[in-house]
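Chapter review. Work through the record for Ectoine/hydroxyectoine ABC transporter substrate-binding protein EhuB before attempting the end-of-chapter questions.
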Amino acid sequence: MAPPNRHLRHSGDERHRAPAPGTTRRSLLAGLAAAGALGAAGCSRVATASTDGGELLDRLRAQGVARLGVAGEIPFGYIDRNGELTGEAPELARVIFQRLGVDRVQPVPTEFGSLIPGLNSQQFDVVAAGMYVTPERCEQVIFADPDYQMKDAFVVRKGNPKGLRSYQDVVAGKARCATGTGYAQIQHAVAAGYRESDLLIVPDQVAGLNAVEAGRVDVFAATAVTARGVVRSSRTAEATAPFAPLVDGRPQVDGGAFAFRRTETRLRDAFDAELRKLKESGELLRVLRPFGFTEAEMTDLTVKELCGG
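Structure tokens for Ectoine/hydroxyectoine ABC transporter substrate-binding protein EhuB:
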């Protein structure tokens, strides 16, 4: 496979960037966001680290809690129906921060587009949202090495009657295509020649599944893990096999990772060291598997590769 080409991406579906529908959950997210904002205001006296590598790790150990920026995106980081923080990134953060001597993690929900500004304005300590690593983002924050890699997949009618297995198939077959608000899959479809104005943009993966089931579109494009998850309870739809979309003629495989303020290299390096141990032992897959991740999403991609350096 040719080396992947890197472009500005969300962690896939935004991916996949809206919470699942439901008044209760939206109200809960709003309340938690307000609480997070108050918490950030209360910590406004904390200055940027003055020593090489930053002092945040020491402060987190003393406080016993790390604040995580999350974007309400299943399965990457969200608040569940019981009001509990969960998702692949928060669960992995719990494991790693406990190993670093930080007992608890606390969610600070925000919009996906506000994650990097919120991190850099110290509203929270780390972005735990499965964020794709891109050269553009590497100019604003520092990333740990990716904890997963991701391909795309389609939600289609059972049996995939139009044989849609790539964006090229969608274009050639003049199929009706949907994807989510802000999803990286918008750019993937456009790169294959699909007109962006012809895409049906829906709020989230549940709306995408509904559009396929109702026959309003032939395909809903998402990350492979999102597509697999959303069709589990469907009697009329299925997910295609994962595939690497072609962008500028090259297969595109993205990697998601935790983001830190640029001054906090000591925390990032300590986090990375624990992440490497989890990868080597196989425990990383155990942590991520409940959220639909498989061996295919495990990766040895590095942040240096994805940042373009």
